[in-house]
From TrEMBL:
Subcellular location: Membrane
UniProt key word Disulfide bond: no
Protein name: P-type ATPase C-terminal domain-containing protein
Ranges of residues in domain P-type ATPase C-terminal: 2-200
One Pfam match: PhoLip_ATPase_C
GO cellular component terms attached to this protein's record: plasma membrane
Organism field: Triticum turgidum subsp. durum
Amino acid sequence: MLLLSLCWYVLYTGYTLSTAINEWSSVLYSVVYTSAPTVIVAILDKDLSRRTLLKYPQLYGAGQREESYNLRLFIFIMVDSVWQSVAVFFIPYLAYKNSAIDSASLGDLWTLCVVILVNIHLAMDVIRWTWITHAAIWGSIVATWICVIIIDSIPTLPGFWAIYEVMGTALFWALLLAVIVVGMIPHFAAKAIREHFMPNDIQIAREMEKSRDSRDANHPEVQMSTSTRA
């Protein structure tokens, strides 16, 4: 998504070789900003418990039928990514078009928007939350803010003090919220429609697990003592 946002920037700047995003932020995007959440979720998250899969082995057929990932889903992801890049680039660009804000300040806003969108997008698809997952996803967003502030506080780097010029205004926070809301509309709508009106076998089994876990929590089994009083 960050690359697509930069593509829009190149188109609107006459194919300039300059970039609005600091070189350090470009490097840290894949190394720090978004790597940990993806790895942690890939390791810890799972669709269903072992108990459910052993009880209903036919659920493994979803992978053979390509229900979880197929060409239609791939096309939707590509279209969704383009939509998010449009929201990330054009909403701040149009808002600051006639202002004195420089490209470095816009680049910082674009970086923050992309990282927040990517992590919220990932969070919406997490099935089983743990404290490690929370720390990875939300910690990645916090780490991005810290890195952007540190980078813009170094006088020798391009974009010095850029984040401070925009972060102190209400428009900055309004644009940040607007980009997140607009960018998540397709994914949120598709997820709601798919899970509520067209659920697959795995989603149905997942709801069964939630009902079972809730029932077990409300009505725990009591271990009866087999000993008798003397």
